[in-house]
Amino acid sequence: MRIIPCLDVDGGRVVKGTNFKNLRDAGDPVELAALYDREGADEIVFYDITASHERRETASALARAAAEEVFVPYTIGGGVRTADDMRAMLRAGADKVSVNSAAVRDPGLIDAGAERFGAQCVVLSVDVKRKEEGPGWEVYLNGGRLNTGMDAIGWLVEGERRGAGEFVLNSMDADGTESGYDLDLISSVAEKTSVPIVASGGAGGPEHMISAVRAGAGAVLAASIFHFGEYSIAQVKEEMERSGIPVRRTEAEVQSG
Fold first, then answer.
1. Mind listing the domains of the chain with CATH numbers?
2. pLDDT in tens, 61-83
3. Which residue, of 7, 79, 192, 254, is most buried by count of CB atoms within 10 Å of its CB?
4. Residues acting as catalytic residues
């Protein structure tokens, strides 16, 4: 089971808020990522949350800087609009590229990325909220500011058909609340698709991550609990192991028993 710290980057700094609002500074992205690498993170995810056409190069620069300090696989997202943008991120050092708003506007971006670089490099990230009326979830764009009205499950089914190799399911309702992942969302997507699911939004501790795995997630992503020192990656892995969930141990952990 993969433990993945998520670093939302705004203006070169890591930030974290609640329900996509009230952002707090959490540090330098490369320094934090290197720390999490040393602590045993399985992967790292960077999101340039305010990327625009003019600032796409900032994400490439982040990818290059991370390549010097981070030795676990990492994903870069933000401002990716074309297959050439994906190529730039991968050439800069990223192992995977995350697409979100641009893929909704141009679903062929997923096909193009999978065909050129392989499905394993294409991560479809989706920001969702529960519908105000009736069951289900809707897809939001532009950092959660625009409701598309699209059914989230249907969009992910299409994403798998087009070649996405992984999903990041970010519950906007739970984001930053530390009240637990949206388990109904995870299980609903797991029932309809076969792509590995990264649970995102709401992690408050190891018990929430264990519940997400049991609901169908193949990896768990968290930000606040790591950035602000509430839990270490080692503590999360220990709790998972106690619950019978296999995790990757670092060489230092193995040697220390």
1. 2-256 (3.20.20.70)
2. 888 999 999 999 999 998 889 99
3. 7
4. 8, 127
